[in-house]
Every structure is written in structure tokens, then in C-alpha cells.
UniProtKB/TrEMBL annotation:
<comment type="similarity">
    <text>Belongs to the iron/manganese superoxide dismutase family.</text>
</comment>
<dbReference type="GO" id="GO:0004784">
    <property type="term" value="F:superoxide dismutase activity"/>
</dbReference>
<protein>
    <recommendedName>
        <fullName>superoxide dismutase</fullName>
        <ecNumber>1.15.1.1</ecNumber>
    </recommendedName>
</protein>
<dbReference type="InterPro" id="IPR019833">
    <property type="entry name" value="Mn/Fe_SOD_BS"/>
</dbReference>
<keyword id="KW-0479">Metal-binding</keyword>
<dbReference type="InterPro" id="IPR019832">
    <property type="entry name" value="Mn/Fe_SOD_C"/>
</dbReference>
<dbReference type="GO" id="GO:0005739">
    <property type="term" value="C:mitochondrion"/>
</dbReference>
<dbReference type="InterPro" id="IPR050265">
    <property type="entry name" value="Fe/Mn_Superoxide_Dismutase"/>
</dbReference>
<dbReference type="GO" id="GO:0030145">
    <property type="term" value="F:manganese ion binding"/>
</dbReference>
<feature type="domain" description="Manganese/iron superoxide dismutase C-terminal">
    <location>
        <begin position="1"/>
        <end position="71"/>
    </location>
</feature>
<dbReference type="Pfam" id="PF02777">
    <property type="entry name" value="Sod_Fe_C"/>
</dbReference>
<keyword id="KW-0560">Oxidoreductase</keyword>
<dbReference type="InterPro" id="IPR036314">
    <property type="entry name" value="SOD_C_sf"/>
</dbReference>
Amino acid sequence: SGWGWLGFNRQEQRLQIATCANQDPLQATTGLSPIFGIDVWEHAYYLQYKNVRADYVKAIFQIANWKKADELLQKAKQ
């Protein structure tokens, strides 16, 4: 449980996947610039998806604002 992230590593100039427990901030704990995050705590999906977290994650990818994610990536690359 926690958060799943796609972040940009400025030192290595590449995207990385990371997780953060609880509400720990991505940048402060990993040094990554946040591009896209998913709340994977049960409270985020249980009422609609029960124990099928994978269906919740698939649904998030369908409604994600990928244009905004790209804007954040371009900004992080500067």
C-alpha cells in the first residue's frame, strides 16, 4: 500500500518507477521529479473494485491526463 510513481531522475536523465509508503513525498525520499502517480491504498479503489487492484490501475491508465504528464516530463528535463 502507498503510492506508485513514474518519476524523472534528473541526474541520470531517465524515467524511473518508484513506490512511496504512506504519504511520503516522492522528491524528498527518492530525488525523482514526479510525472505520474497512482494512489494504491485500499481506500482509493475498494468500494468500486473490491480486491481487484489491477482493474483499478488499468482504469486509471484509461483516464490519465497524458498531456499533463508529458508537460511535467518536459519541465523536469530542463
